[in-house]
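RECORD TYPE: inverse folding
INPUT: structure tokens
STRUCTURE:
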């Protein structure tokens, strides 16, 4: 009887954690979708507020602290070192892949290009920064990357890992069902603004999730997330700005 009771309790805890995580994700997704349909300029603000406060509300019900969900500077040194190391490896590879990809685009059907990319026109390189670049830096760190990382890698990934703690260790991080489902939800969440090509964020989401698992903090992942977005903006401005 005792064993059966433990199994029932574990099953209830698993279902409860997964249900809570999915409900919070649906609330965030639904709020962004409604904002996009009703008044598009408000969608970004709604996303930022939702990503920060929906998890906090869920945590407060159980008396939990947001610092236990990765929003902490306790491992700041490790986070910064990890961010620099990952950037040094990934960004040169990404730049090479970006350049190769955009030079293939002119040979593809126009309808396909519009579906899978945001790019229009023939790329011509001239190194430049986007207009108001410093504002973009602040925006990407504090309005985009940090709220998204807190919501997805901090809250969702932690709650789902409470349900499914199992997984294989890969370079110091345990990768299990919570790891993969969080990345999938992150990609699906970007469909709230009806741009199919945004599903590609599934792949960087895997790297963000791995970074969070290695240090227990979302700070390094948020720095890398913001830097990756800024790199894309610089490349877009350099190849497609006229």
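DESIGNED SEQUENCE:
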């Amino acid at each position: 009887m005792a064993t059966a009771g433990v199994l029932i309790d574990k099953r209830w805890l698993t279902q409860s954690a997964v249900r809570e995580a999915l409900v919070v994700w649906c609330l965030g997704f639904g709020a962004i979708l409604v904002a996009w349909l009703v008044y598009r300029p408000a969608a970004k603000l709604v996303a930022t507020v939702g990503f920060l406060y929906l998890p906090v509300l869920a945590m407060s019900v159980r008396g939990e602290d947001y610092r236990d969900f990765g929003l902490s500077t306790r491992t700041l040194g490790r986070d910064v070192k990890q961010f620099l190391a990952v950037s040094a490896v990934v960004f040169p590879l990404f730049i090479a892949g970006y350049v190769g990809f955009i030079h293939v685009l002119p040979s593809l059907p126009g309808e396909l290009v519009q579906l899978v990319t945001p790019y229009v026109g023939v790329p011509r390189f001239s190194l430049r920064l986007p207009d108001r670049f410093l504002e973009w830096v602040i925006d990407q760190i504090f309005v985009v990357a940090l709220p998204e990382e807190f919501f997805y890698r901090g809250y969702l990934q932690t709650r789902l890992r409470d349900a499914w703690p199992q997984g294989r260790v890969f370079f110091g991080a345990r990768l299990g069902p919570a790891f993969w489902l969080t990345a999938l939800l992150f990609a699906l969440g970007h469909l709230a603004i009806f741009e199919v090509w945004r599903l590609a964020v599934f792949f960087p989401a895997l790297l963000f999730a791995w970074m969070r698992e290695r240090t227990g903090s979302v700070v390094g992942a948020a720095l890398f997330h913001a830097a990756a977005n800024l790199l894309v903006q610089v490349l877009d401005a350099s190849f497609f700005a006229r």
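NOTES: The mean pLDDT is 90.
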